[in-house]
Amino acid sequence: MTPSMDQAADSSTGKTVSQWSGASREQAVQRMFTAIAARYDLNNSLLSFGLHHRWKALAASHIPVHTHGRALDLGAGTGDLALLLDGRMGPQGRVAAMDLNFAMLRFGVEKIGRRGLASRIACFRGNAERIGFRDDTFDAVTTGFCIRNVGDRPQAFREIHRVLKPGGRFVCLEFSRPGCAWLRRVYDWYSFRLLPAIGTWVAGDHTDVYRYLPESIRAFPDQDQLAALLREAGFARVDYHNLNGGIVAIHVAVK
Ligand SMILES: C[S@@+](CC[C@H](N)C(=O)[O-])C[C@H]1O[C@@H](n2cnc3c(N)ncnc32)[C@H](O)[C@@H]1O
Fold this sequence. Notes:
By secondary structure, the chain is of the alpha/beta class. It has 10 helices and 7 strands. The protein has a single domain (18-254), classed as Vaccinia Virus protein VP39 (Rossmann fold), CATH 3.40.50.150. Helix content is 44%, strand content 19%. Helix 3 (40-47) runs antiparallel to helix 8, helix 4 (51-61) runs parallel beside helix 5 and helix 8 (181-203) runs antiparallel to helix 9 (209-219). The model is unreliable at 1-17 (pLDDT under 50). Residues 29, 33, 44, 74-78, 80-81, 99-101, 104, 127-129, 144-146, 149-150 line the site of S-adenosylmethionine.
């Protein structure tokens, strides 16, 4: 069996990426996303059969429409969710798009520029575990497929709760656990066999990101566990919506 990115990268420590913490985990995540940034959008569309656009639009639809709202998209990557979020913040609205990785953000900056929205959507480099904004700043915070890669998720959720205004909403779009056994089997076959082969070939990547992807999904808390983490971080109301049988879930949490 080909070693996974986790297994391949851990020869000196005997640890997997999911077990790494702090700087080493951050560096591993950085390497992965730098390696695939140029082909990220293409791979996303191929590997999700175009569904990621629908998932993101549904996630954004959980954010109420504002007239002069302030929103933050964490792990913004190439900017899709930040662009959708902009549509909900109103004519005077502003969006901050934050990501750990410069290579991913660069493509986001270009995409936002092409849509003529650079004056409304500001891109920042930053870590979801240490959000450099004041308490009670945002009406809405979103993350799309980012939180799975964050080392200290409870800390990230506390930070998100801190920067939201009271009554503000956090929407978390992430891979999750399919509800029925047959779908889990088909999905496991697809994600552990087909997806790494296609993803690695398209991205021309040598860091095995597309092997890390299914492993990180499997290691990630399921719908109820994630909802419990959000409640522990202080969110008063937490709800989730399964998409495509639970392959993906949208968690909505209110401060
Ligand atoms: C799978 S991509 C998702 C990009 C985009 N949100 C989307 O849905 O297409 C995950 C992104 O999260 C970023 N990321 C990972 N860990 C992060 C962290 N601790 N803080 C901020 N961004 C992070 C990565 O650099 C990457 O751009």
